[in-house]
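Archive entry. Fields below.
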Amino acid sequence: MRERLPALGKSVLRGVGDDAAWLKTASQTLVTCDLLIENVHFLPQLTPPRLLGRKALSVNLSDIAAMAGIPDFAILGLGFPREIELEYADELLEGFLEVAAENKVELIGGDTTAAPVLTIAVTVLGRALNKRPVLRSGAKAGDEVWVTGTVGDAGLGFELLKKSLNQEQEISELHYSSLAVRHLNPTPRLEAGQKLAAIANAMVDVSDGIVSDLTRILEESSRKTPLRGRLFLERIPLSRDFRKYFEDKPWQSKNGLALALTGGEDYELLFTAAPKKRRLIAKLADELGLAFSRIGKIEKARKIEIILQHENGKTLPLPKPWFEHFPKTESTPN
Amino acid sequence: MRERLPALGKSVLRGVGDDAAWLKTASQTLVTCDLLIENVHFLPQLTPPRLLGRKALSVNLSDIAAMAGIPDFAILGLGFPREIELEYADELLEGFLEVAAENKVELIGGDTTAAPVLTIAVTVLGRALNKRPVLRSGAKAGDEVWVTGTVGDAGLGFELLKKSLNQEQEISELHYSSLAVRHLNPTPRLEAGQKLAAIANAMVDVSDGIVSDLTRILEESSRKTPLRGRLFLERIPLSRDFRKYFEDKPWQSKNGLALALTGGEDYELLFTAAPKKRRLIAKLADELGLAFSRIGKIEKARKIEIILQHENGKTLPLPKPWFEHFPKTESTPN
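PREDICTED_STRUCTURE:
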């Protein structure tokens, strides 16, 4: 692997090739780690290795984005089944290094071993902008809830890929459809995250769907008083392709509702901010060319919960998780 | 997992419970990562979960020891098969936290997921003593080669455990025999490593046997001129139990020779130092109550190689790796 690595920057005093990497670090460091395991987090028959390598790093960068952080270093642990081909491993590493280069992250070490299924363990080190990350625990009653981009696409893309597999359909086109791309090749919202450092009170990335991820913010932010989140259904941002799939009536479909609220893996940023920040957020949206949607608010409550309501005020029950709606395959990513 | 964790020290600004951990760090950081995978690195039927948890952290701490470093933080990624019992997972975590507490390391984050076999990904962050770690690349011609403790025990212990399994023998006693313990519960030589910061020119931990690990030092240290290592067979330190197993003639046994030189997993420190450091090393041995054996020297050469010789000067060929000598089981740890 070592000869494949690009030249290292001056913060890397020693990279691959010793017992440990030796790095120059800031006085504060952010660390995140994710395991990606074949048939649990990805289906190899649906996932080209280059995109898998990209995603393995992107999902970790998304965690750094959600802290308003700057990623610096990555460590890659790889477990390969014996039958895997060298070309496959090469493409996986190539994808990983592409995302590293795109985001000025250096691969500084790792471990390679045999494993019964393809196993990818990624650790990313970074630092907080302005020495203070945005935590999940900073949400306040009165805050508004925002999300970047659109949600539900990655889940729907994954469903379409699985369907194509069952029907033995040609999937090469689907791989590059906008929905499948959201599942296969997520974009970590690093720049948006960093710009939100001075705006957001609490932030998380959308890995398990906005209901689960907003609940995490509520759990961490509810100290003396429990907090609840109120979500306005029609404000939840959906892509054109997502709407089209549900014949422009996504909210009248149980599957559409479930995917948008619980689909996960969109890797957008979900955050809360004081109402007075609206103008700054609008400016940021223009600057980045990225949608920022105000989808709800944070309120004092008797217990931690999420209330879902129509714009007309009528509440509706939270959908069951999407994977209970769609026909199951052997495995569902989590 | 979160409620099981001990209270965090003041260097941990945010531990488990956010998108990333947030840490106070020194201006230089050491990072190491190891994957441990069931049936590749350990056989679950031979490995009590508490000891597996201990070993998962200890082998990473050994990497920090080999840099003359101080470990500070650990990140634990766990992939569990669905059939695993909660009690098993609890004991594994307990063992991991024991070693963390013994070495003042804080578990600051991780990831838990499903996996087809038990999968453990550990990352450890630390810092170099005196801001400068001991690298593999510092060996010089004229240096002497040293190793702490005894070697070959872990490999022999593993062989004994496997034999007991094949013969359906009672293994509970064996688990606690001195040789099996070397395989099941290695001791990271952190204090020795730190004390060697001002003594050793190059250092590595013995994870794959002294021949492989010394070769790593030679490869990293050979720049303008290739370096070779000369090892004096009879000086290689063996435990009483190891000698006894080979009827006090370990060097006349092909298996004894192979285990001592290529057995691996002893997690002792192998280092080179200038001859003038002998007195300092003798003092350190007294202070720590740990054997330090001078087993060879580093010489200029035409190519990178290891020469093995008797004390009388007669050379002998390097043994084949131990796992080619012993009857194979399905899997051999690497």
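CURATOR_NOTE: The CA atoms of residues 30 and 126 of chain A lie 5 Å apart.
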